Amino acid sequence: xxxxxxxxxxxxxxxxxxxxxxxxxxxxxxxxxxxxxxxxxxxxxxxxxxxxxxxxxxxxxxxxxxxxxxxxxxxxxxxxxxxxxxxxxxxxxxxxxxxxxxxxxxxxxxxxxxxxxxxxxxxxxxxxxxxxxxxxxxxxxxxxxxxxxxxxxxxxxxxxxxxxxxxxxxxxxxxxxxxx
Length: 180
Description:
Number of strands: 11
Shape: elongated
Low-confidence stretches: none
Mean pLDDT: 94
Number of helices: 3
Order of helices and strands: EHEEEEHEEEEEEH
CATH topology of the largest domain: TATA-Binding Protein
Strand order of the largest sheet: 2-3-4-5-1-6-11-10-9-8-7
CATH superfamily of the largest domain: TATA-Binding Protein
Number of domains: 2
CATH class of the largest domain: Alpha Beta
Helix content: 10-25%
């Protein structure tokens, strides 16, 4: 829970694991039915639910988890299925996707140009305003219903701080639409 009652939800945490012995992409395809595409091999796990991506260097990227602990369990399960040793597995934490709701209607079409600690543009295709937030080092997608998606974030606390900052900024600049 963020200050001012804004609840931040981590939707996806990108985590990369480096095994002592690189994972052989061809072995993933042959043993587990992984799919080779664009220089990587993809394997979807059912338990825990996650998508495993093995890069050309034999490193494991885990997508689709909300917690680092869950990503580690997925990586270990994957290595176990491959018959590989999981000892010495090192972790690199990447960016996350998080969401929150400002619970107000917003005139997103008007949020453009320099605004606060960011630069904004309206994306008609997505129907949202996209803010490059330099203060919190993330990108924020803001929809008219108040729903916000933060990408490239490094921590839930930073997203919570961004949520409070932008809610205040939108209020000060009159971007919230008054309901009748």
